[in-house]
UniProtKB/TrEMBL annotation:
Protein name, UniProt field: 2-methylcitrate dehydratase
Domain MmgE/PrpD N-terminal, residue spans: 6-237
Protein family: Belongs to the PrpD family.
Source organism (scientific name): Bacillus safensis
InterPro entries on file: MmgE/PrpD_sf, MmgE/PrpD_sf_1, MmgE/PrpD_sf_2, MmgE_PrpD, MmgE_PrpD_C, MmgE_PrpD_N
Domain MmgE/PrpD C-terminal residues, every copy: 267-428
One Pfam family matching this protein: MmgE_PrpD_C
Gene Ontology molecular functions: lyase activity
Length: 444
């Protein structure tokens, strides 16, 4: 059987709700996604997008998180995907090398029309979506990301359409066609990191998933083996032979939402800089010093470990989400690594000048920690002070990553910090009761 059909069969026959750990992680994922979206509710980009979409009109069916408005199903998927990913505060998954929840959850929310409630199956669909996206990430190969593709966008639509297929219990024919429609529209570029377009790529993937399933269920014609062959998705985007061995190996024996698990963020910037953030803050606790007392900062990665950090001299805090130089500068200048530091405001000139003291290096000889997150990754921050003192700190598992994970209580606190305590409690209650329609209501 071809890969496309094998994947569809695996999705439709799976039973993730037998794993209580997966269910709990899915609940945490919903809470964290809500926190990430509410943190971005005043974002300039969401207002611009909503204005453009409102000009087009359409049935108001699904709420846009934190905006007090409803949009059409596809538009809501786009807007909610953008919101969850807008501040880079949302979860990541090391197998995906991207952000699964920002695509999968908005696509699933867009299915909750006319008071239809799927109950615990909604959580099962979310688990399935993460599973597929993680397996796609493993199967596509490292070169996909390194060439400049944005995995959240390129892999997200297929994963989310599989989640919708499981939720709605569609037929094999409908799901294989929907996978094909999603694959044909998959896109996203790392070149857009540090701009509004980066989170929009998550929203576009969610919208694509909703549209693709609508096309398939309408009977619209399309290829049912898009993942396969010399002209298929894996051949075009990555490595077909790798996909043949990885995509479905051991499917259903464990769930990727649990192991290696979702990484819920402590900091609102790219996860590739979280190791360095922990390291520099640890060094500053060991000894206090002023920015002018720092002669040089060396940041050491394994080869390719900083691929997502495309900004070395960012002009704004928004671009600084993808700059280890800016993250280190903030800490050294005594500023907190919180949302206020990563807006569209210009970075002060003295800080931008200071960032030139930060140099990146690469080490392929250092033995990775066996439990490093992501696998094989580490960051070493070495400070050289003007008095000749050197200080060094290595981090393999940053705060929030699996192995040093946020607790459920931590995630609830993250949610409470960006919305009212009563609304946070109502969202928590809806998630705990597996009431997806109530969850949708309280996201407004």
């Amino acid at each position: 059987m071809e890969l496309t059909k094998q994947l569809a069969e695996a999705v439709l026959s799976a039973d993730p709700l037998q794993d209580e750990r997966a269910i709990q992680m899915a609940r945490n994922g919903l809470l964290d996604a809500a926190a990430s979206a509410f943190a971005a509710k005043e974002d300039e980009g969401i207002q611009q997008l909503m204005q453009l979409i409102e000009q087009e009109g359409g049935a108001a069916q699904i709420p846009v998180i934190g905006q007090g408005k409803k949009m059409s199903r596809q538009s809501a998927a786009l807007l909610n995907g953008y919101l969850i990913h807008a501040l880079d505060y949302d979860d990541v998954h090391s197998d995906v090398r991207g952000h699964p929840s920002a695509v999968i959850i908005p696509a699933l929310l867009s299915q909750l029309t006319e008071g239809k409630g799927y109950g615990e199956r909604f959580l099962g669909a979310y688990i399935i979506g993460v599973e597929v996206m993680a397996r796609l990430g493993e199967s596509i190969g490292k070169a996909h990301y390194e060439r400049g593709w944005h995995n959240t966008g390129t892999l997200g639509a297929i994963a989310a359409v599989c989640a919708i297929g499981y939720l709605k219990q569609v037929s094999m024919e409908e799901l294989t066609k929907a996978i094909g429609f999603a694959g044909a529209q998959s896109s996203g570029m790392r070149k857009q990191f540090g701009s509004d377009m980066k989170p929009l790529q998550a929203g576009l993937a969610a919208k694509t998933a909703v549209w693709s399933m609508d096309l398939a269920c309408s009977g619209f014609g399309g290829n049912d083996s898009v993942l396969d062959g010399a002209l298929g998705f894996f051949s075009l985007y990555g490595d077909l032979e790798l996909a043949k061995s990885r995509l479905l190996e051991g499917y259903g024996s464990t769930w990727r939402i649990v192991s290696p698990g979702l990484w819920f963020k402590v900091y609102p910037f790219c996860s590739a800089a979280h190791h360095a953030a922990d390291a520099i803050q640890s060094l500053m606790k060991e000894r206090s010093f002023l920015p002018e007392q720092v002669k040089q900062v060396d940041v050491i990665f394994p080869p390719g470990g900083d691929a997502a950090l495309i900004e070395r001299t960012p002009l704004t805090g928004e671009a600084g989400r993808f700059s280890v130089e800016y993250v280190i500068a903030l800490a050294v200048f005594g500023q907190t690594l919180t949302l206020d530091a990563f807006t569209k405001k210009n970075i002060p000139s003295n800080m931008r000048t200071w960032m030139k003291r930060v140099s990146r290096g690469y080490d392929q000889t250092t033995e990775p920690h066996p439990n490093a997150v992501p696998k094989g990754r580490f960051t070493i921050v070495k400070l050289t002070l003007t008095d000749g003192t050197t200080m060094s700190k290595r981090v393999d598992i940053p705060q929030g990553a699996p192995g040093c994970a946020l607790s459920k209580e931590d995630i609830i606190q993250k949610l409470s910090s960006v919305t009212s305590a009563s609304q946070a409690q109502q969202i928590l209650q809806a998630v705990e009761e597996e009431n997806d329609t109530a969850y949708l209501k309280w996201l407004t």
